[in-house]
Amino acid sequence: MNAHTVLLTLLRMYRPIFLWFGATLVIGAGIADLVLGAVTEPAFSLWMFVAASAVKYWVLVIGVILVSTHLRQFVAAGVTRRALVTGGLIFGVLTSLAVAVLVPLGHGLEDALLGEVAAGYPAWSPRLGLGEFGHVLPSCLAFFVSGAAVVAAFYRYGAWRGLPLLVPALLPALVTEGLLGLGGNGELLTRFLPYAAAVTVSVGLSLVGAMLYRRVMRDVTIRRSTTS
Amino acid sequence: MFDERSPIYVQIADGIKNDILSGALEEDGQVMSTNQYAAFYRINPATAAKGFAQLVDEGVLYKKRGIGMFVTPDARAKLRDERRKRFFADVVGPMLEEAARIGVSVDEIRKHLDGATR
Amino acid sequence: MIPMISVRDLTVRYGATTAVDGLTMELAPGRIYGLLGRNGSGKTSLLSVLAAYRRADGGSVEIDGVDPFENARIMRDTVFVRDTLDVPEGDRVGKVLDFHARLRPRWDAGLAERLTEAFGLDRRKRVSALSRGQRSGLGVVLGLASRASLTLLDEVYLGMDAAARSTFYRELLDDYLAHPRTIILSTHLIQEVADLFEEVVIIDRGRLVVQEETDTFRARGVAVTGPAEAVETFVSGRTVLGRQSLGGVRQATLYGGLGDEEERRAEQAGLSLAPVGIQDLFVHLTSGEHTPEAVR
């Protein structure tokens, strides 16, 4: 059973969840925007306020579930740890890409909806959209990897012995959060380092985190339950 | 179905022999396959196969390659001869011993048998 | 015999506890094995290593000549069902079955459906809502319908009533007859399944005690009963698994069959001989009065 099969299975498994989640979010924000636009002239982006800051936590949760639920489930169906880790990482990257596209897309749609009626609305442009994509993607990747690595460390070594690994495992998410961000109103935040350097550091740390995750999972024992 | 006293394959072989003696299995007739036997009696097929192999060794069954197992034409006669030889030693002997232990005379036994066969 | 499974000096530890202690054995392909042992004897640990659920701490395990750990080909063709069902608790039965159907190359959907019905499982029910017996039933469905070359079933009958267990044994045998493969069934309800095993493997305190054809093993135990003195004279020099006395009468349980000559000698000494049930024999062998080596 190879990583390819794992990836396809995960995509199938999460497809309905993604569709429901995405649809609820887009429709919910759309309706809220219509109401807002009718009663007032919003000077902020609801979409960026609600969605943009949240997406990294979704992928973090997926990273966590990969270890806490999918590891046992897939190995019990005859899949190697290696295949699960590789397939899961690719799945995490694809999910991060998808949400990184979703964020500027939603902002653009909202702009089309409100940009005309609300003068103070933070306007959207394809250039800004590209910047949003460039900020959301590394942050999602980092959160995904950190989520997976932290749980893997605890799953394999237990609460106390897993503790030292907490630092390198959390590093991608913490550093990326410090360097790159989106403001509550969707403004692009690039701190301490120029964008190119910040992305290089972030992606580099995520790669290291992914390697740590892979290493910890390589010969992990499949426990009877996540807690014991 | 099977008891703990002897290996199951021996009990299987004995069961088939009894079926041949009673006529339930005809000479040259096909017997169940080991798998059918295993499924019917809920036992491991290797155990059934062992019982069958013993019967082949003893010349009670013979194999037709690719078809199955059959009862040897003279199996019934052979089994009867064997059992007859052992009848007095295995059945009558112990009975007389028991009779002697509890004071039943041979005459009494003879009378009982006359009554039973009349 | 070309072994399918070859275990050499296997050691499995949990912290300070040694669960499997230098175990060595070889199993031929295509047979049903009964893996017998008391709780904590190391059965589950042994099976976990065979299933590549964990690495050995010492020694080696080979399946088809290679280490099963992280071997994609071996793991795909091995199924391990243990009492804690390794499926997401929140999933519905139907989803669990579909998941395994996708990942198991030889999955038999028809068999899965029949078994699901036989064990009274509702496809729409969540795993967390199943009773203990139904969970076991689901485990059996996964174990049999995967139709893996190496099928490891670890005390999968927990919580099943007699009828469900009987269904399980029947389906196991029928499917094995139609699709012979290596099945290792660990249990301590020996009496009711012994007839299905081609061989029994008994382990105690992480060591191999007996590996033998079931029929041969069955004939190993003899209970000798009679006057205490006569019993002791007769059994001296033999492996005695247990003794019990009532007044002047003693019963000794011997390990190792008796020949015709010995049976006659016992009879002359006024002793009576009786077979020992396979369950009793197992209890005697693992009751802790003997080191496992004593009977080998």
TrEMBL record, chain A:
The chain crosses the membrane at residues 17-40, 46-71, 83-105, 136-155, 162-180, 192-213. Keywords: Membrane, Transmembrane, Transmembrane helix. It comes from the Bacteria. This is Uncharacterized protein. It comes from Pseudosporangium ferrugineum.
TrEMBL record, chain B:
InterPro entries: Tscrpt_reg_HTH_GntR, WH-like_DNA-bd_sf, WH_DNA-bd_sf. PROSITE patterns: HTH_GNTR. One of its GO terms (molecular function) is DNA binding. Keywords: DNA-binding, Transcription, Transcription regulation. Residues 6-74 form the HTH gntR-type domain. CDD domains: WHTH_GntR (cd07377). This is DNA-binding transcriptional regulator YhcF (GntR family). It comes from Pseudosporangium ferrugineum.
TrEMBL record, chain C:
GO terms for molecular function: ATP binding; ATP hydrolysis activity. It comes from the Bacteria. Keywords: ATP-binding, Nucleotide-binding. Signal peptide: none annotated. Pfam families: ABC_tran (PF00005). SMART domains: AAA. InterPro entries: AAA+_ATPase, ABC_transporter-like_ATP-bd, P-loop_NTPase. Transmembrane segments: none annotated. This is ABC-2 type transport system ATP-binding protein.
